[in-house]
């Protein structure tokens, strides 16, 4: 029995009779388990199971779809198994409604009460004086010591100009934080769950930029979510730098070209 399965038996209080590894666990192991009494659950390891549990609970409280937290300790998280047997292409309107609901929740400041991580890449969630400062200090410059020097200089140049490129005090929306299609469960044309969050409070457009990085939301998404303020295209490019830099650090030089292209689009 794997360490994760053993943790699951401890958390769920029973014997696992069947288990299956789930795809999508690039940074954490994922298991779908069936208990002796017939219960199903998803088990997940990770850098901070308790923090992820609190994020899922906050998301669920907004009314946005999220799996229920069944049990958690320092080693593992057990969550509700949710059906996911359909394509996001049939659920853009449902996703627009879900994110609109999520982003309506307002935080006291930008950030999150605890740090988090994408595997070995730390996520600094401490608050900052304003939004441009937060994004510069907590999302971009934190990578400078871990990327090639020429890219770091260009990132620094962009950060020196963010007060003129980003709104100073946008609505502090609850963000999913890793809003790509792989973290969106769909069944029968509806979004059934937002999973694997890296939540914090910030400009809602950060989630939308991440969504657009690997997908092309259809018209039904915009109709359900609503229009954005003018200038979104440039802000989207800035916000896309955050996941691009994370991917560069996690998965290597294959993502350097994406970072360079985004910086060139921003004129730095």
From TrEMBL:
Pfam families: Fructosamin_kin (PF03881). It comes from the Bacteria. GO terms for molecular function: kinase activity. InterPro entries: Fructo-/Ketosamine-3-kinase (IPR016477), Kinase-like_dom_sf (IPR011009). Coiled coil: none annotated. Keywords: Kinase, Transferase. PANTHER family: FRUCTOSAMINE 3 KINASE-RELATED PROTEIN, PROTEIN-RIBULOSAMINE 3-KINASE. Belongs to the fructosamine kinase family. This is Fructosamine-3-kinase. It comes from Fulvimarina manganoxydans.
């Amino acid at each position: 029995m794997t360490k994760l399965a053993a943790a699951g038996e401890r958390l769920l209080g029973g014997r696992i009779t069947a288990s299956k590894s789930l795809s999508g666990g690039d940074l954490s192991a994922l298991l779908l388990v069936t208990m002796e009494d017939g219960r199903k659950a998803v088990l997940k390891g990770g850098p901070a199971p308790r923090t992820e549990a609190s994020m899922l609970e906050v998301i669920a409280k907004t009314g946005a779809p999220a799996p229920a937290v069944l049990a958690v300790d320092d080693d593992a998280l057990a969550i509700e198994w949710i059906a996911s047997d359909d394509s996001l292409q049939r659920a853009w309107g449902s996703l627009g409604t879900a994110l609109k609901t999520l982003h309506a929740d307002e935080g006291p400041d930008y950030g999150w009460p605890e740090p988090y991580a994408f595997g070995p890449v730390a996520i600094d969630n401490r608050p900052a004086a304003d939004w441009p400062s937060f994004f510069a200090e907590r999302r971009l410059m934190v990578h400078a010591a871990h990327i090639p020097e020429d890219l770091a200089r260009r990132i620094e140049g962009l950060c020196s100009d963010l007060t003129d490129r980003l709104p100073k005090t946008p609505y502090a929306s609850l963000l999913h934080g890793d809003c790509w299609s792989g973290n969106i469960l769909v069944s029968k044309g509806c979004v059934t769950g937002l999973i694997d969050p890296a939540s914090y409070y910030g400009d809602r457009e950060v989630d939308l930029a991440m969504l657009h990085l690997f997908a092309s939301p259809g018209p039904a998404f915009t109709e359900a979510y609503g229009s954005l303020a003018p200038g979104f295209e440039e802000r989207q490019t800035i916000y896309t730098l955050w996941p691009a830099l994370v991917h560069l650090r996690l998965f290597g030089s294959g993502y350097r070209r994406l970072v360079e292209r985004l910086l060139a689009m921003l004129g730095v």
